[in-house]
Amino acid sequence: MSEPKPLPFSAPLQGISEKTIAIHHDKLYVGYVNKKNEIAEKLKTLSHGGDVSTANQTYSELRALKTDETFAINGVYLHEGYFDLLGGDGKPSGVLLDALTEKYGSLDNFLNYFNACGMAARGWVVLAWDTREQTLRIFTADAHNQGGVWGALPVIILDVYEHAYFIDYGSDRKAYIADYWKNFNWAKANELFSKAVGCRL
């Protein structure tokens, strides 16, 4: 069974309030962890001799559980990745900065495009390392279990669901995204990028 991970930072964030973080982490994220565990227990019962005779593609308990399994697990993983990248000083540095400059021509080009994807998405925008083609890609997701590609490892994860910013910014998502970068932990992102680049499918 999974246990909720504590926040990796303690200092107040710029723009994003402690209230927002508390609700986002302690209620929403913890809720995904609990549902992930609940679904895992039910699937364990079915996979260890349980009755799967009614399984079908229109509706069945197994189909519902398998669909919601990916939603809950990605809800956990994406939120953990999002929180892991907060609490920094926002100063760009390291191998990821070099890779982004090479890929997009400049950091400003990357930020303009990534931020625009954040405005276009309904849920998430993710910079990932494609382990098959050995390149960086930006994906958007309208739901936790939509938009990603198997074989791509997340490096930068931005939550753009309204719960991530509405208390502090109202409908001004653009200001929230700007503050995300002020709080961004480049050291952690460089660590993730270095690990991802070492993987190849």
Structure description:
The chain is mostly helical and 201 residues long. It has two domains: 18-84, Helix Hairpins (Orthogonal Bundle), CATH 1.10.287; 94-197, minor pseudopilin epsh fold (3-Layer(bab) Sandwich). Helices cover 52% and strands 11% of the residues. The protein has a three-stranded antiparallel beta sheet. The mean pLDDT is 97.
Care to give the gist of this entry?
The protein contains 7 helices and 3 strands.
The H-level CATH homologous superfamily of the largest domain, spelled out, is Iron/manganese superoxide dismutase, C-terminal domain
* Structural class by sheet pairing and helices: mainly alpha
- Average pLDDT confidence is 97
For the biggest β-sheet, the strand order reads 2-1-3
Instruction: Please state the CA-atom Rg, rounded to the nearest Å.
Output: 18 Å
How many helices does DSSP assign? 7
What CATH calls the topology of the largest domain is minor pseudopilin epsh fold
Summarize the SSE layout with pairings.
Layout: H1 18-47, H2 61-84, H3 94-104, H4 107-120, E1 124-130, E2 135-141, E3 152-159, H5 166-169, H6 173-182, H7 186-197
Antiparallel strand pairs: 1-2, 1-3
Helix pairs in contact: 1-2, 3-7
